[in-house]
Amino acid sequence: MTSRQFTMTPIDHQGADAQCRGCPLVVSVPPLQERCSADQWAPDTGLTAGKRSCGLRGSGRNWQSDIPRGELAFTLEERQLLNIHGLLPPGFINQDIQVLRIIKNCERLNSDFDRYLLLMDLQDRNEKLFYRVLMSDIEKFMPIVYTPTVGLACQQYSLVFRKPGGLFISIHDRGHIASILDAWPEDVIKAIVVTDGERILGLGDLGSNGMGIPVGKLALYTACGGMNPRECLPITLDVGTENEELLKDPLYIGLRQRRVRGPEYDAFLDEFMVAVSSKYGMDCLIQFEDFGNVNAFRLLNKYRNQYCTFNDDIQGTASVAVAGILAALRITKNKLSDQTILFQGAGEAALGIANLIVMAMEKEGLPKEKAIKKIWMVDSKGLIVKGRAALTKEKEEFAHEHEEMKNLADIVQEIKPTALIGAAAISGAFSEQILKDMAAFNERPIIFALSNPTSKAECTAEQCYKATQGRAIFASGSPFDPVTLPDGRTLYPGQGNNSYVFPGVALGVVACGLRHITDKVFLTTAEVIAQEVSDKHLAEGRLYPPLNTIRDISLKIAVKIVKDAYQEKTATIYPEPPNKEAFVCSQMYSTDYDQILPEEAQKIQTKSDHRQRIYIFQFHFSLVGKHRQQHFHLQQLELQALLD
């Protein structure tokens, strides 16, 4: 059966039938008033997740959706071209005033979660304005659209679910993943953030509720790095969940089954990677996010030399942590290879940091074997030592000759580290006594409480500074307020947020068409970030540049990656651009509204008519089985040419 064999009788306000030749199936489409509310003639199907959908003209229709600005920002000429003059108040405002309106609406809300919902609604309605708002004060809005608020959003995702925001691919879709990718409305995708929801932040297994993480990450790809949001795709791979509360929750949006593991899981991931690279190219960036510890390392090692991929929890966290340590060394006035580092936690984040520290020590000239001996790790069973049972391959590398110990306070007393790094999501793990001991061993102890969200932090900034009389060099994974000490000094804790890393890495990798991302990229990124910390920042306790400069930092990271790629002959975009910075800048997303010309206005209206036809067909076609798949696919093929 080909697409030309499919016919659909004309659809009007009274209802219609659709039939496929050679098949007895006839679909009755109910009258329009039964399908749509009076104030929105063509409700959003959700298939344009994260984008604006149909854009019809006329009273009572959702005419704004496909028009790239909305509200009162249209000029008089544009209103006349779009036939919406009179549907808007007569006033005219620019984008800056629109931003002010959103900010004032955020301020009147009582919680960051409510602000998150407002901003996500804005992202659906007006993408350019959404990113303009984020970029207007990234330090203010990042904690709302990403950590820590996104953690609560994921926990409540099924309750507040409105639109998908990305693609959901379940284990039952094996054999059809390529077709599901075809359903996404954008044909050019350069970056994907994918999760299986097994380890969302420090909150555990949230299954399909974890979609908030890829959506939030990619929002920062654009706001912090300048990636075009239309070329970014959030994906959740749903293989089930072990979360009992979700399995019993009638509102849960994901599969109600235990997680699939083993060969079936691996085959599912293999098919996904092949489908993505086949459709979008081998240089499509695939960022793995919040996979469980075992799968995270295994999949990274399996795919890193086959595809353009990285794991932000392992490599991104490592890069930002090492950046903070490199900045801290400017305060302690010694080398990285002089440090003794103790980790509370031995999961993907801690091991990723440890491995990058080893690489950085090697760069200083210390042999790898000696560098490894500088690092000690504590997991849920205690100090990792040689001979201890059930150590993974990754942990075994950092096991040293020592007696077994379980209590962290005793281990700190025994090892006497110069740096203590928490990455186990154990709230309060750094007790007051541990903090005081660190200050007793070191004039300027390095203490990083990197666990997210804030409720899982090993200690707060205030606890750390007060226990060490302000001598600690502190950084955290989630934001903390400034702390004023008894002596009158005010310290501003550094936030080791991965957003310093992944937007710039993604921008650079995509710009030059890098096929494989090595750990060297992340060490280079750490060095760039550390160099951007001024002496004034260090004096205030800051180990990272101000977040409001993050777009400039991302550009510098991207330019350095591009320069290195061309120097090492690993770039695939040729001819080589003579001015790397100008080349990268030319690919960065602009939040300025596009001018609507007469031919574009006509295109918007034409697309609206065809999308209305598609919507009516999709809305009622809720049958399951092969007939639904055949008819849906055929109708999409028939009408897609009209939209291009």
UniProtKB/TrEMBL annotation:
Cofactor(s), names only, from the UniProt record: Mn(2+); Mg(2+)
Limits of the Malic enzyme NAD-binding domain: 314-566
Subcellular localization: Cytoplasm
CDD domains found in the cross-reference section: NAD_bind_1_malic_enz
PROSITE patterns reported in the protein's UniProt record: MALIC_ENZYMES
Molecular function GO terms recorded: malate dehydrogenase (decarboxylating) (NADP+) activity; metal ion binding; NAD binding
Chief localization: cytoplasm
Keywords attached to this entry: Cytoplasm, Metal-binding, NADP, Oxidoreductase
Amino-acid positions noted as binding (S)-malate in the UniProt annotation, renumbered to this chain: R199, N452, N497
List of catalytic residues: Y146 (proton donor), K217 (proton acceptor)
Alphabetical list of Pfam families matching this protein: malic, Malic_M
Domain Malic enzyme N-terminal: 123-304
InterPro entries: Aminoacid_DH-like_N_sf, Malic_enzyme_CS, Malic_N_dom, Malic_N_dom_sf, Malic_NAD-bd, Malic_OxRdtase, NAD(P)-bd_dom_sf
Top-level taxon of the source organism: Eukaryota
Any one Gene Ontology BP term: malate metabolic process
Oligomer and partners: Homotetramer.
UniProt record similarity statement: Belongs to the malic enzymes family.
Protein name listed in UniProt: Malic enzyme
Organism ancestry: Eukaryota, Metazoa, Chordata, Craniata, Vertebrata
